[in-house]
Design goal:
About 15% of the residues lie in helices and about 35% in strands. The chain is α+β, with helices and mostly antiparallel strands. Strand 10 and strand 11 form a beta hairpin.
C-alpha cells in the first residue's frame, strides 16, 4: 500500500455544487441547532450557519493511493468566507493536494479548495483540510509545518456547552457524508471503535455554532474564518464544551468533552 505522490499540486476539474434552503436547514439540524435557533432551522428570514461552507466547497473526492479507507480520519479543517452564504445557492469548486507529510505512524495529506460563484465567478469560499492515514508513514518525507498555537494564560472569555444527541450522526449524514464509520458498527470496529463515532465536521459545526453565538452576536455576516485540528473522536450523545478566548477580531478556541478530553485543538476564528 502506498500514497500517490504524483497528485501533489494537480488541480481537479471544476465541480459544481448547488444547495436549497432545505439543505441548509437540514445541515443546521445535523449540527444540533433547534427551536432556539429558528433563523437557521426554518425558512422564515432564513440564514445559514457559516460552517456550511465546508460542505459547499467540497470538491469531488479523489483516491490518494492504495490504502484501507477505514484507517483514514479527518485531521484538520479550515475555511474563509468572502461573503455570507445564501440559504440557497451554488458554487464551482476546484481543489488540489498541497502536501503529503510523513508523520511516522501515518501520513498527513493536505488539500486546498477554492469555490467561486456559479454566475459571476467571484470567490465565495477558500477551504483547507487534511486527513491522517494510519500506517502510511515511514516513507522518509517532510514532517510538515509546525503550528505555534498556544492557549492564552488566562481563563476563557466564554465557555459554551452543547449536548449532542444519540442519533446525531444519523441526522448529520443526510447532508452528504455517508461514511459507514459513523453509522455501521461493524465498519467502526474495523477502525478500532466499539461503536460508530460522530463526524468530525459535525463536531466542527457544533463548535462553529458556539463561536457564532458567543462572539459574533449570532450574525453570520460577521463570521469570516475558522480553523481547527481534530484531536480525539466524539461519540453521539456526548456533550461538548467550547472554551473561547477573544482578542478583537482574532479568536482562539478549544473544544472538549465532559471528561476534559480535547476533541478540537488549536482553534482559530476571525470575527468582524
Amino acid at each position: 500500500m502506498a500514497l500517490d505522490h504524483t497528485l501533489i499540486g494537480v488541480e481537479t476539474p471544476p465541480h459544481e455544487r448547488t444547495w436549497t434552503s432545505k439543505d441548509t436547514m437540514l445541515y443546521a439540524l445535523g449540527v444540533g441547532a433547534g427551536t432556539d435557533e429558528l433563523a437557521f432551522t426554518t425558512e422564515k428570514d432564513q440564514r445559514v450557519l457559516p460552517t456550511f461552507a465546508v460542505l459547499a466547497a467540497q470538491a469531488l473526492g479523489r483516491r490518494l493511493g492504495d490504502y484501507d479507507p477505514a484507517l483514514l480520519v479527518h485531521a484538520e479543517q479550515a475555511f474563509e468566507l468572502h461573503r455570507e452564504l445564501p440559504a440557497a445557492g451554488g458554487v464551482r469548486t476546484t481543489s488540489k493536494v498541497t502536501g503529503m507529510y510523513d508523520k511516522g505512524s501515518g501520513a498527513l495529506v493536505t488539500v486546498e479548495a477554492t469555490a467561486v460563484d456559479l454566475d459571476t465567478g467571484e470567490p465565495v469560499i477558500a477551504s483547507r483540510s487534511s486527513v491522517f492515514i494510519r500506517g502510511e508513514g515511514g516513507f522518509g518525507g517532510d514532517r510538515g509545518p509546525k503550528d505555534t498555537w498556544a492557549a492564552p494564560d488566562r481563563a476563557p472569555d466564554h465557555k459554551v456547552t452543547y449536548s449532542t444527541r444519540p442519533e446525531q450522526a444519523l441526522i448529520y449524514r443526510l447532508s452528504g457524508d455517508y461514511n459507514p464509520l459513523h453509522s455501521d458498527p461493524a465498519f467502526a470496529a474495523r477502525a478500532g471503535f466499539d461503536r460508530p463515532i460522530l463526524h468530525g465536521l459535525c463536531t466542527y459545526g457544533v463548535t462553529g455554532r458556539a463561536l457564532l453565538h458567543a462572539v459574533a452576536g449570532s450574525d453570520p455576516a460577521r463570521f469570516k474564518a475558522m480553523a481547527g485540528r481534530f484531536s480525539s473522536p466524539v461519540f453521539p450523545g456526548e456533550s461538548l464544551t467550547v472554551s473561547i478566548w477573544a482578542d478583537g477580531a482574532d479568536v482562539l478556541f478549544r473544544t472538549a468533552k465532559d471528561d476534559g478530553t480535547v476533541v478540537i485543538d488549536r482553534g482559530r476564528a476571525t470575527i468582524a
